[in-house]
Specification:
about 130 residues; alpha+beta; elongated
Length: about 130
């Protein structure tokens, strides 16, 4: 029977398995990072549009065009008009974008990420 002194450390097989797992996680992270960066850009765009001057007097099409212009500038192609909703109740309007992104990860494995973000703003009188 071997003593504990001869069994210290990690074997080469364990190191290879660890390197393979870390490599797979790295590849997945590299492929998903741009998707999440686009999502944070979308959040920023929606906040910017919601706080733009006279937003309370804009129609659905005017708000969508403002958002779509900013999406085009940022080269975000995953969002289309049918992903955008605008709901007005009383003096408050909610803008919601809900979309899915599918990205190839490894071999025959794809990742599906679902994003949804809403911003609210109140209508102000035109004299402000």
């Amino acid at each position: 029977m071997r003593s504990r002194r001869g069994q210290k450390g990690v074997s080469i097989a364990s190191m290879l398995v660890l390197a393979a797992v870390l490599g797979v996680l790295f590849v997945i992270g590299v492929r998903l990072f741009p998707v999440y960066m686009d999502y944070y850009s979308v959040r920023s765009i929606m906040g910017e549009v919601a706080h733009s001057p006279n937003i309370g007097s804009k129609t659905y099409w005017q708000v969508w065009n403002a958002i779509n212009t900013r999406l085009d500038i940022n080269s975000i192609d995953d969002i289309h008009r049918d992903n955008f909703k605008m709901n007005t109740v009383g003096n408050e309007t909610t803008l919601t974008i809900s979309y899915e992104v599918r990205r190839h990860l490894l071999a025959n494995i794809d990742g599906l990420i679902i994003f949804k973000h809403s911003v609210h703003y109140e209508h102000t009188s035109s004299g402000d």
